[in-house]
Specification:
4 copies of one chain form a homotetramer. By secondary structure, chain A is an alpha/beta fold. Helices cover about 25% and strands about 30% of the residues of chain A. Chains B and D meet through loops of B and loops of D.
Chain lengths: ~180, ~180, ~180, ~180
């Protein structure tokens, strides 16, 4: 073991094109001062990617902007269709946390042969103390590094799509067999 | 290909203990209102990990709190020693960007057999528009997912320790052969 | 008038003790990550006064923590009672904007002989882009400077309690005769 | 005194046009990610006034953008000239705290017959925990409410221009006879 900087090192993964598919969720809510409530307007993702100083090629796609509690099977099929249509092999899906595991199950069981990482936030990006930026960075890393499959990435951890649930009482994700 | 949620999926990486070694850098600067300048006091990492809602086992170690422009060889040896002493196999080093590549080279060429990911920030966590949270999330993901080696993770990309430099004019990291 | 710094200048108003009466409103809402909604927990005022580096003697009183749309006559009488009981002559009332004018009318028509300034926020203190800090500073200034009476202070302007309404369409306060 | 909302109340001060004269100071510093330091670029005031939802007529004038420690007599004469030339009777001067009292003395001793309120910030607007918004709101209120003269408004208090100094050890303003 020498300190020779030209020594062979296993190559870092090549920078891979990433597609971010936005579906809304807590992550992307903003405060509407007139209505006096958290709702959706435009996605914060373009501003966030600039703030994160990302030089990776990123394609951004707003698939829908809704609360995941309002998602129907049709909405989930729309996410699956977007993942299937994407030319990229690395995909991050920004999703509400309440039904993230369900949509991940729909996408994961389709076995698209891509690395698809679901993430979201417990506190909106636009609110003090948000976990959105950390989670996005975590997911953008994981989608480049993990084998092709579908995952949920929250709380600094990554879970297989069929082994995860949201613990709604504690507001964290944990390993669990998928609901029958 | 079925939609059976019990179908075998490649396991997600098991949650692994991560050690975060703090060295200071732009990431951790705070504004001293009396002195009227950005300097170091306590690390923001404990508050950041809480904000990120991380449930992963994380050991936090403040190795030093300095501007990486002020780092000497002795400081870099201190980082290497901390990486060597760490019981964890997954390590994130928070480091100033200006000499991150040099310290990564010192650590990487020692070939410790651990996954060591250097990251930092171009704008302090405590300043509007910071990339710190994104970068930390990205690095915490990469350290769990990559093969044992030393890396620099910035701008949404990961670089091998001997193939990276900071482009100081543009403020971004890019692939490059290490300086001879 | 010379440039002699010892020349007599009209004295600035002496620092006066100020009481801040908190009633909740948008100003003080925080995001409950478990419930996924904006609600009330503790008031942000203690942290805000520290952030504002206020050296003025300030008494802080949490009268209630509710959305002003849910205020009843009884709640407004509670605000009036708190203003009456306060030993200070300078009072700031933090109040939801939707019925701020109504409560100001209840307090103003009681003619307590104190300078009582209502303010609030269109965007919570805890949300990006909030007007809360500006409005609080504005109100803390006005309560020290204005003659004894009751006022609404929003949008950088101050209105007499019986000459103001909220324009809910535009989300601003404007001069108007009080509703009959 | 009855609860009749049409009862005569002392009129609130009419909304008055305010001129904000920007000179830089800590208030307006931003972080230059390439240089790695706090410096000046554009003033944050246009964005701040929008955030504060100010409907008052405000004229904004960038007189200079420098650290007040670098101000010379010539710079202070420039501030005085701007105050003199302003058509408004209500002026807020955003100024570095270190020599705010000196410039206020130059302007105050000129006795322009206008209400001129100096303010600034101990922590930049662009940094977490800033007092800038509170101080600006406070000053915008005071300039409309106080008699014509020159004042320093910081820490929730207002001081006559010839009775104030910055206590640099504690980082607060306090009443004091002007230096001889």
């Amino acid at each position: 073991m020498t300190s020779d900087p030209t020594a062979a090192a296993p190559a870092a993964p090549a920078a891979r094109s990433v597609r971010i598919i936005v579906t809304g969720g807590t992550f992307d809510k903003h405060y509407d001062a007139i209505k006096g409530e958290l709702t959706f307007k435009d996605s914060h993702l373009p501003a966030i990617l600039e703030q994160a100083r990302v030089t990776l090629p990123v394609a951004l796609e707003v698939n829908q902007l809704i609360d995941s509690l309002h998602m129907t099977d049709e909405h989930r099929q729309g996410v699956l269709a977007a993942c299937r249509a994407a030319p990229e092999e690395c995909i991050v899906v920004i999703h509400g946390t309440d039904t993230m595991a369900q949509t991940a199950q729909v996408v994961g069981s389709a076995a698209l042969g891509k690395t698809i990482v679901f993430t979201g936030a417990m506190i909106p990006f636009s609110v003090q103390g948000s976990d959105a930026l950390f989670n996005l960075g975590f997911a953008v890393g994981m989608t480049q590094a993990l084998a092709a499959d579908t995952y949920v990435a929250m709380n600094g951890r990554v879970f297989a799509w069929n082994k995860v649930r949201k613990n709604k009482q504690d507001g964290i994700f944990e390993a669990a067999d998928a609901a029958a």
